[in-house]
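agent> step 3/5: call structure_predict on target 'Adenosine 3'-phospho 5'-phosphosulfate transporter 1' (Centropus unirufus).
agent> reason: downstream docking stage needs a structural representation; sequence fetched in step 2, passing through unchanged.
tool.input:
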Amino acid sequence: RFCLLLVLVSLPAMAAGEEIPPALQDSWGDFWLFRFFINAAGYASIVVPGFLLIQYFKRRNYLETGRGICFPVIKSCVFGSEVKSIHQEDGSLPPRSEPTESSTARQVFKLLCCAAGLQASYLTWGVLQERVMTRTYGATETDPGEKFKDSQFLVFMNRILAFTVAGLYCALTKQPRHGAPMYKYSFASLSNILSSWCQYEALKYISFPTQVLAKASKVIPVMMMGKLVSRKSYEYWEYLTAALISVGVSMFLLSSAPNRHVSTVTTFSGVVLLAGYIIFDSFTSNWQDALFTYKMSPVQMMFGVNVFSCLFTVGSLLEQGALLESLRFMARHSEFTAHAVLLSVCSACGQLFIFYTINQFGAAVFTIIMTLRQAFAILLSCLIYGHSVTVVGGLGVAVVFMALFLRVYARSRMKKRSKKLPPGESPVQKV
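tool.output (status=ok):
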């Protein structure tokens, strides 16, 4: 309750600072809520017929009565093998091998490569994301240039490359036998593209450092959801770190520089979009956890989700006529083309680095690397794009990252303690 109160207290200050840049007031079609419903209608035009087809095949008991050349495809898409693993770990990455003393140098080298790959991929991705969504292209002395406004096209670019990379990886390496019905990936895919869309759109209304801090504070709604829905219990240090994160985020959001620029104003629209990002992203991770009860690898998950992501986004773009318009924008501005392609490459490579790092070194090391990446991302954004941060705001950022590192340390201590528990005792569930 204390964490929620701090967040709610900061909302009136955010709403008071609501300023919509002139570039966003060109037409009604530029309003983010209108675009959101238009995109959702496009996705519904694919989801609803698909849902009706799935119900039709299930009612017909197609698995027993179906025949013909389409039977394997329909069986895979609608029914799958329906064989689940007993433990979730069976469907995730193979057990992580512990490094031996003789391979210490090799493990250190791998760790450095993973850290460098993650930092390079996601720091570049963050810088390009802010460049694409907040700056103009083709500006001259007489022409102010034009902004790229269609976030959905950027989501499509990211997903089509991720789909290609995951497909090639699955084709060239041995993967577990796939058992999940393909249509189940569509739920995670839909929430994933909506969370990505909210993430891109939010940069039109809030600064990149604010967005990064909001991502870092996702642990708060996750704990609230676990407490209310799943009746989970948490340790005292989890409440402490959640409170520290709330305090740090509130300090950053409520701090105001004397010469704030329009691009750094935290607006109410940006807060709503960030809330949408957190909600959709939380659903994506929880649904993917449920899908891992089938025997599959993370790369297979990446492939299945991105198949539907490409289908949803390209369908919606074609229905709106936005695909051709975005391609014409790419033809007019070669710089944007390079940025969009590099953005997609960084996103796809970053996902592969995530899988490999967790497989080799575990989630704790990965969390530390990504937490450092968030801190570096804020620093880079302030240096490159001139975001001003007050002393109070900087102190808030420090509090947030101190809480995140404290969380990683406490969790690792709890895991070591749980290994020493007598049989029959189980540690308290944690997030």
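agent> step 4/5: record observation. DSSP finds 15 helices and no strands in the chain.
agent> proceeding.
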